[in-house]
Write a structure and sequence with these properties.
This protein has two domains: 274 residues, NAD(P)-binding Rossmann-like Domain (Rossmann fold, 3-Layer(aba) Sandwich); 206 residues, N-(1-d-carboxylethyl)-l-norvaline Dehydrogenase, domain 2. 50% of the residues lie in helices and 13% in strands. The structure holds D-mannonic acid.
């Protein structure tokens, strides 16, 4: 039996004295992504400045706290590629709170004057908003709860506003809110949501948030598959220590951040973080190129029986579809120079192919109703407005529709995880594999398609054509026929 990873046996591997590290950031949504991304940059800052330790929080589940508490919140970062696996112990996490059981401790940490940033990776659905418009959903059960019980909030917006209120009462400057989720203009989006929530509570509090709190936007990028038991065994083998929750990732890592931190920030620029004035062009590029391709690969890949992204990419037709999707359909909607986009595309194709990364198509397929608007539909909207074709993008949308019916190509149930899953499945059941009925039903889901796309005849005709093929011939053949019939990109 290997020993458990702890400060006693691995603390010496850290380039700083962990006992001197103090909290500067509270992070909401302490999943594998944050632990492979921002927490790693912060780990590199601590030698110079130990005031930027992190207190993490899970909003819904105790599992991360339970896994990391016995190992002093240390964990292993395992970077994987065809060349092998590199491991590193990360010590920037000082504590993980389970918000369901430790809400007051979490609010205290967020109100602590030493804390100058509250960052978030709570996934798209954590914002309790309408994904098509980006506005706070006042009917969301968590928001209703938090408006009725503002002192014991359960949503991220409720926690942030309560903590800002406590700071205001105690004369402590507000923290900066740093959104690290894949949303368009993510700072602006979370700013809009948090401010709207504060205004619902109290006009003066709303004004305070609107005036005093900074919400810089960020673009975050690193592919992080969910950790498996096989990964745990691999890490044990590599390090000789037992780690209940290591994180597995790729060599690539990118963080672009708008430099608006009135309460201070860690010195990230020396670590490769790009500090910019406006993150929007980067955000669009990433959401449309990377995440748009990812979702397309996830639905078409899952339907074809590919468990991992790299397996779908090994199918030449799928690879050609994704190459064409980016080159012919996405790139023209982005403001960057063509050669920069071509390089970005080539790097993505290589990242998706990384065979050491076991990135499940099912994992990416999750929460499609929250992801589609910014990943595929914005691009489609832009192209339709300019009269440009959307053959490949609309196949991604059709594959999502086929997927959310909840039944795969062999008639087996698909475990569809999505806040709208029940509604989507019911629309699928009513349509009974009739492609036009299915498209018509799902285009009415306004949270996804908005008013405009729901009524768009061109999109409707493309998507129903693809769906007919997906039902009749399956995903592999549909992809093959589409790429076979289009000019090579
Ligand atoms: C993926 C992303 O799960 C998903 O939906 O598309 O998490 C993706 O891996 C990251 O955005 C990469 O930075």
């Amino acid at each position: 039996m290997a020993q458990r990873l702890t400060l006693a046996n691995a603390g010496a591997l850290l380039p700083y004295d962990r006992s001197r590290v103090t909290p500067g950031i509270v992070h909401l949504g302490i999943g594998a992504f944050f632990r492979s991304h921002a927490a790693v940059y912060l780990d590199s800052v601590l030698k110079e400045d130990p005031s930027w330790g992190v207190i993490g929080a899970s909003l819904k589940r105790p599992d991360t706290r339970n896994a990391l508490l016995p190992q002093d919140f240390l964990y292993t970062l395992a970077v994987r590629s065809a060349a092998g696996t590199d491991t590193r112990v990360i010590g920037s996490l000082l504590d993980v709170l389970d918000a369901t059981a430790q809400r007051d401790a979490l609010l205290d940490a967020m109100a602590d004057p030493r804390v100058r940033i509250v960052s978030l990776t709570i996934t798209e659905k954590g914002y309790c908003h309408d994904p098509a418009t980006g506005k706070l959903d006042l009917n969301h059960p968590d928001i209703r709860h938090d408006l009725a019980h503002p002192e014991s909030p359960v949503s991220a917006a409720g926690l942030i506003v309560r903590a800002l209120e406590l700071r205001r009462m105690r004369n402590v400057k507000p923290f900066t809110v740093l959104c690290c989720d894949n949303q368009p203009a993510n700072g602006e989006t979370v700013g809009r949501i948090v401010t709207a929530f504060a205004r619902e509570r109290d006009a003066a509090l709303g004004d305070h948030v609107a005036r005093e709190v900074s919400f810089p936007s960020t673009m975050v990028d690193r592919i992080v598959p969910a950790t498996t038991d096989e990964d745990r065994a691999l890490v044990r083998e590599a390090t000789g220590l037992d780690d209940a929750w290591p994180v597995m990732t790729e060599p690539f890592c990118q963080w672009v951040v708008e430099d608006r931190f009135p309460s201070g920030r860690p010195a990230l620029e020396g670590l490769g973080v790009e500090m910019v004035e406006d993150v929007r062009p980067f955000e669009f590029m990433k959401l449309r190129m990377l995440n748009g391709s990812h979702s397309t690969l996830a639905y078409l890949g899952y339907l074809a029986g590919y468990e991992y992204v790299s397996q779908a990419m090994a199918n030449a037709d799928y690879r050609s579809l994704i190459h064409g999707l980016m080159t012919e359909e996405v790139m023209a909607t982005l403001p960057m120079e063509r050669h920069a986009l071509t390089r970005y595309r080539d790097a993505l194709l290589e990242r998706f192919t990384n065979p050491a990364l076991k990135h499940r198509t099912w994992q990416i397929a999750m929460d499609g109703s929250q992801k589609l608007p910014q990943r595929l539909l914005g691009t489609i909207r832009d192209r339709l407005a300019r009269g440009l074709p959307v053959a490949r993008l609309s196949l991604g949308v059709a594959a999502w529709m086929r997927y959310v019916t909840g039944e795969d190509e062999s008639g087996n149930a698909i475990d569809v995880r999505d806040p709208l899953a029940e509604r989507l499945k019911a629309i699928g059941a009513a349509a009974r594999r009739n492609p036009v009925a299915l498209v018509d039903g799902l285009l009415q889901v306004k949270e996804v398609f908005g008013e405009d796309l729901g009524r768009n005849a061109i999109l409707r005709s493309h998507v129903s054509g693809h769906l007919a093929s997906l039902f009749d011939h399956g995903a592999k053949q549909t992809v093959a026929s589409l790429v076979g019939g289009l000019p090579k990109s």
